[in-house]
Amino acid sequence: KAKSKGKAQYAMFDASLHQHVAEQLLLESELRRALGAGEIYLDYQPIYTLKDKRLNGFEALARWRHPERGIMEPATFIPLAEETGLIVPLGNWVLREACRQMREWSKGGDGLRMSVNVSSLQLNDHEFVGQVQRAIAEAGILPTQLTLEVTESILMNGAPETLAALTSLRDMGVTLSIDDFGTGYSSLSYLAKLPIDQLKVDRSFIEKMGEEGDNGEIVRAIFTLGQALSKQVFAEGIETAKQLSLLQELGCEFGQGFLLSHPVNAERAGGILAEHALVTA
Ligand code: C2E
Ligand code: MG
Ligand code: MG
Ligand code: MG
């Protein structure tokens, strides 16, 4: 009896697995189409000074306006894009669009900054440095206005080509940031050697800060590390006033989070920009 039940469960699992695979295949072909169809667009989350909430810039975040499923978050399609290699054209589109938008917003000057997320496939693509160069040139922005966010795992893989690409980008004047910092078990001696300007403390650490029994020791340690290595430290995922005040006490200069602003569409971001005096990092 137990055996037949097990078999039935297995068959059910198999059917749902099959459905999952079919679903992923469908999504893949839709994603392939989506980019050309203009269904991918960017929202922008403001990054502020934490001391006095002046605007430093924006982080560009990809969205997919799916004709039937509605607006899809990156978690539903970025991993798929990475598995299928579609992240390379998609990431290149994000880069160009973010630079173009920055140019449109920079008419009054060149103080505005934009952060763009980059995945490992892009960074390991030998055309990537050239694509960044072209995106900057085509948009007519300064390289110093662009920040590229890469995750720790990309860096820790430590391929010589990856390091060479990062070095070229930094030599161009692009700012390099380690996103979700603290989740990837970076070797500290390796970190010291990387051509990186910023550490963006992962949201999970900010989240715990201000909870009972957590006074931000981990975040404090990351700040000490950042200072020792001459890296700027940014905070992401600031949701509460308590977290903000702890970060201010730590001397954290820049951050983003729902408390300050959710990611917003380009039109609203333009409005936020019009209301704020810019401050450069
Ligand atoms: P990320 O780069 O760490 O971006 C920050 C994420 O945290 C965003 O989620 C943002 O909406 C969310 N967030 C910001 N403030 C708060 C807060 O106070 N509380 C909470 N709970 N969340 C907050 P989103 O837009 O869903 O993006 C998720 C991830 O998808 C990004 O994490 C990034 O890794 C990836 N991603 C987004 N756009 C792109 C892209 O164009 N290219 C690549 N390669 N990855 C992207
Ligand atoms: Mg990011
Ligand atoms: Mg992040
Ligand atoms: Mg994150």
UniProtKB/TrEMBL annotation:
EAL domain sequence ranges: 24-277
Protein name: PAS domain S-box-containing protein/diguanylate cyclase (GGDEF)-like protein
Residue window of the full protein shown: 531 to 811 of 811
